[in-house]
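G., the chain you wanted modeled:
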Amino acid sequence: MGEGLRERKKRETRERIADIAMGLFMAKGFDNVTVAEVARAADVSVNTVFNYFSTKEDLFADRQDLVVDHPVQVIREREPGESVVRAFRRDILDAIGTRHWRYGFNLGADVFARIVDASPALVARLREMHELREQALTRALADELDAGPDDLRPRLVAAHILTTTRLLTHYSVSRRLAGEEWESIEPDLRAEAEKAFDLLEPGLGDYGRRR
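Predicted structure as tokens:
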């Protein structure tokens, strides 16, 4: 069943509030913006904002559920004969080619990083998101591969892969923050991604290979 009118209006209101909040955060910094300011700019009440977002950090991290769930989708959608490592290699190379936000390769990722770095609350929130994402991927790997409770492999694989993708994101964003253009970053980023996953292949290459 498709999205109903009520659900669509609620989604659109949520997205509008989050977009307006992000504009304010970009202009003034996260710590210098109050929820009341967001409510005024969005022409809604403070209570309405809190109906959609439990905290101010939620306004900034409005895509957290998508970020946490994405690695799980990568392994669930891997192709026949494709291992977990191969699936993530394919996914991150696609994100580089399309400049997709899921790994922070999008236009404006450097602005996002500046806002986060200037706010201890957001630094802590992103650390929490990374932990949640790793936990979600660990559970998904354990469930899909029927790993026992004492099997450390799902957690080790999740940690290695997500650390690799996070470092590649950091590599890209750091060069953007230094003022480089994407056109000069992309070929080096792609080469670094290939080298990084080449390092993972010998140890993890067959893990979770889909028959």
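The mean pLDDT is 94.

Shout if anything looks off.
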